[in-house]
Amino acid sequence: MALPAWLTSRKRSATARSVLAGEAAAEAARKQEQEMAAAEREGAGTAEAAGAEEAEFPVAGDVHAAAFFDLDNTVMQGAALFHFGRGLYKRKFFRKRELTRFAWQQAYFRLAGSENADHMQDARESALSIVKGHRVSELMAIGEEIYDEYMAGRIWPGTRALAQAHLDAGQKVWLVTAAPVETATIIARRLGLTGALGTVAESVGGVYTGRLVGEPLHGPAKAEAVRALAAAEGLDLDRCAAYSDSANDIPMLSLVGYPYAINPDSRLRTHAREMGWRLRDYRRGRKAAKVGIPAAAGVGALAGGAVAAAAVQRRRR
């Protein structure tokens, strides 16, 4: 079977596994969007009130523009994967020893204020081993509860307002995160966003195998996911915006015409200043710089992950 145009091979620096991870995430995001739209038509979907500060800028509608938001420390304080681990421990999915490791990783993340590749990899491996053999539907239901328990109160109001400004302008808004696509999809739906690009875990017959499709959606893989989704959605990346706190996301931020550094780590802050990118820091209750959408920018679900993985693999054969 011939690959669709938006999945055709291109010359790029990412590894094959990054490309596969990005394409799987994009496929999952599109299916999530379709499912969420159907649920809204049936009156089944409700978005939470933003509870955020009023956005400072108007954004004109543009069907070829969209916004991509990193999750951890950009939209939400801390790492979604660590919060998810706390919830699973509460439900006796693993022992205290594993909880101690999750707690240390979360403490490090909050104190450092940035991602560490070794810590994040260790956390992902822990999560995969914990969910192996469990049903996708079971983890999705638990994820809804964990969001209420550990995540809802950690959403940055300022970043939430930025996302809402894009939505109010008629633009689509996606989360882009290394967290599992199932967890990311729950957060996106609860915030009223369009959908999420996240790490796709393999499942067979609705049961997790403990393996990933490609690699975690991190660094270059995030850029590949955004590139693939933009091609599928007919977006002009030069008219899109992206938001992140981490220098690891410079590949994604560099793809779009309007990159924003939110709660930036030191490397991203330095890079953003050198490139003239806009900055905002919500951690200290201050604005690093006024953030606005330039006029040119505004003119002119885990089951989903499993289906996406299968679809991408079929297209590759």
Automatic annotation (TrEMBL):
Annotated transmembrane regions: 291-312
Keywords: Hydrolase, Membrane, Transmembrane, Transmembrane helix
Record's keyword annotation contains DNA damage: no
Entry-linked InterPro entries: HAD-like_SerB, HAD-like_sf, HAD_hydro_SerB1, HAD_sf
Source species, domain of life: Bacteria
Chain segments annotated as coiled-coil in the UniProt record: none
UniProt GO MF annotations: hydrolase activity
Cited PANTHER family: PHOSPHOSERINE PHOSPHATASE, PHOSPHOSERINE PHOSPHATASE SERB1
UniProt similarity note: Belongs to the HAD-like hydrolase superfamily. SerB family.
Protein name from the UniProt record: HAD-IB family hydrolase
Species, as recorded: Streptomyces spirodelae
